[in-house]
Amino acid sequence: MGFMQSLRHIGSPRRWRAPRSGKSLGGSKGAVRAMIGRPKLVLASGSPRRVNLINQAGIEPDALRPTDIDETPKRGELPRACANRLARAKAEAALALVRVDDELRGSYILAADTVVAVGRRILPKAELLDEAAQCMRLLSGRNHRVHTAGCLITPNEAFRQRLVETRVRFKRFSEEDIEAYLASGEWRGMAGGYAAQGIAGSFMVKIVGSYSNIVGLPLYETTTLLGGEGYPIRFGWLNAV
């Protein structure tokens, strides 16, 4: 991903120390010194949407390690279980890559997987026109749920997971709507055949829950998960414009 750049370090690098309990990370010189030599973060994804979202939170991963795993749901697998399983599988695959990389060994690793479902039915990540058309007809005028599971591996290789659900209702589509949307190609590779930040954003009649979860990474829950495990989530804020 050519748009990723290495984080800038302030002054000479030194070993990162977690801030003392109750100390704020913003504003003081002591806070700046506490963030020097911060631990690294690897995002186990090549998705521009997830990169943009985590950047929006003021966090820039040090490396992207997208993984190639079989994302086919198991027979009878429920949407929540599927999202959790795939997020962990992506994190484990990225961990195997990080372990043999001298520069990244000991990094935090963050992986995520998004599943769109109507009831218990998991919709595909549409690659074929017929799949996208089927998704559109299933979603037309109906409620559906978007499940995103996040899996974090800490530097000592502890696993932490969190799952977020958002309920969404789409408008009822005409045949003209479906034909024009399919012609746009925006559905390709998307869970449920749509991207909330694209044309499909105009289909949403109602959302209950996290919007960033629909895009692919629930920001509040992700930053809370990282911060709870000692990652300095406010580091990038110090360099924000």
Structural class of the helix and strand makeup? alpha/beta
The count of β-strands is: 7
Measured between the Cα atoms of the first and last residue, the distance is 23 Å
The biggest sheet amounts to: 7 strands, mixed
Residue stretches low in confidence (pLDDT < 50, at least 5 long) are 1-35
Task: Give the overall form.
Answer: elongated
DSSP strand (E) fraction? 15-25%
Succession of helices and strands = HEHEHEEHEEHEHH
Helical stretch count? Answer: 7
Give the proportion of residues in helices.
Answer: 25-40%
Average pLDDT figure: 87
Radius of gyration: 19 Å
Commentary on this structure:
This protein is an alpha/beta fold and 241 residues long. It has 7 helices and 7 strands, in the order αβαβαββαββαβαα. It has helices at 29-35, 48-56, 79-99, 129-139, 175-184, 211-215, 219-228, and strands at 41-43, 63-64, 108-118, 121-122, 143-153, 159-170, 204-208. A hairpin with a 5-residue loop joins β5 and β6 (159-170). Residues 1-35 have low confidence and may be disordered.
Describe the secondary structure blueprint for this structure.
Layout: H1 29-35, E1 41-43, H2 48-56, E2 63-64, H3 79-99, E3 108-118, E4 121-122, H4 129-139, E5 143-153, E6 159-170, H5 175-184, E7 204-208, H6 211-215, H7 219-228
Parallel strand pairs: 1-2, 1-3
Antiparallel strand pairs: 3-4, 3-5, 5-6, 6-7
The gist of it:
The protein has 241 residues and is of the alpha/beta class. 30% of the residues lie in helices and 19% in strands. Strands 1, 2, 3, 4, 5, 6 and 7 form a seven-stranded mixed beta sheet that branches.
